[in-house]
Amino acid sequence: MSDDPAAFLSAVGLSASGSPGGGAAPVPSPSLSPLGPGPRGGSRRRVLVADDDPGILQIAGTLLGRLYEVQTFPSGEEALLAIQNGLKPDVILSDQRMRALPGTELIERAKALLPDTVCAIMTGYGEIKEIITGISKGEIHLYISKPWQPAELLQAVRLCFIHREMTLENRRLRGETTEQDGALSEIRGDLTGVNRDFFLLHQKAQATFSSTCHVLGALVTDHTGYYHDSHAETVSRIAGAVAGAVGFRGTARNEIEMAALLHDIGKAELPEEIRTADPATLRGQALTAYESHVARGVARLAQIARFERVAEIVAQHHERGDGTGFPNRLPLRMILRESQIVALADLYHNLTSRLTPLEISKRKAGIDMTRGIMDVAERQQHAAPWFASHGHLFDPLVYRAFLDVAASGAVPGFKLVLG
Ligand SMILES: [Fe+2]
Ligand SMILES: [Fe+2]
């Protein structure tokens, strides 16, 4: 580059009318297209140039003045003072070697006030060490080696603006994303609250429904005076434990427990004398009426929403694997495992808890039932031979699980020792 600014400007087709504070001299179209008008509603992009070489300051001011709003300063102190007084350039272009305040120091202090301003430094090779420090601190975006060509200067300033505007745009997008994240987490929070309310409501409804089933099951069998303890409750507890041992979980296990609770609900429609009779003593129409409790129960359960499976289980609770059960005399392969579990629990409770005819007559006569009756251990001993000889009526997996749970003592009062 020529040492005479006027000669240089003339050589590149410019007049030397540019001056500190911003030049408006015409410039040729540079080979690199600079960024157009600024993004802020048409206001121009602002460049601050600081150099204590008046010639270079004039050339830079003139070159950049056509494209940008340029403020030029002949020293680092004056540039810094202008910034401290409110000047807000988008880009600072500073010479490094200036008296009193070198370029790196001007940039460091300016960045402390204007962190979004992008800075470039003009330097000779001798000052590269300070420049590298400035670059690594993020204060200097790039440097321009002296002597520079006009296109290099325009390109450097253009890159500074591109960097600045990308940084601002990224920040804006990050802000939008954060806002959207905030809105999303608010929605998620609302949904979590709604889900929790629904979950609690659902739990309450389930608990109410379950206790209703317990009451219903107890109403059907317990008032008959036929058992030492609650038939429905005990059958359900045993069936639940055996179902778990077989591998039924969640809803499937719950359906078995419900079916066990309500397996005899059809008996509610039977006359008192049939409902309370020992089935083994019934014949003819009385026996047919007794066996109808299965179909009657299924008809009732089918009226309850989502109880289809419970009804199916109840429908087979008197089927036996040798085809002697009722109402359909089904073979083992057609009997649901769930129904077999209920059947085993039902059989166990009938064999160990049902009162003998003598005990029933005593109870009906109001005689004290706490003495002279067979104790539970004795009853379990009596029941053991039946279960030992009837394993073929059941699926081996179900039968094994039933015996295992009985042996484990996991259900209070449920014990069988087959010997
Ligand atoms: Fe039954
Ligand atoms: Fe029963």
Question: What is the compact description of this entry?
Answer:
The chain has 419 residues and is mainly alpha-helical.
Write up what this structure looks like.
Strands 2-1-3-4-5 form a five-stranded parallel sheet, with helices on both faces. Helices cover 55% and strands 6% of the residues. The radius of gyration is 48 Å and the shape is rod-shaped. It has two domains: 5-172, Response regulator (Rossmann fold), CATH 3.40.50; 225-408, Hypothetical protein af1432 (Orthogonal Bundle). The protein has 419 residues and is mainly alpha-helical. Helix 3 (76-84) packs parallel to helix 4 (103-113). Residues 8-34 have low confidence and may be disordered. One fe (ii) ion binds next to loops.
Write a concise keyword list for the protein shown above.
5 strands, 419 residues, 15 helices, five-stranded parallel β-sheet, Hypothetical protein af1432, mainly alpha, Rossmann fold, binds fe (ii) ion
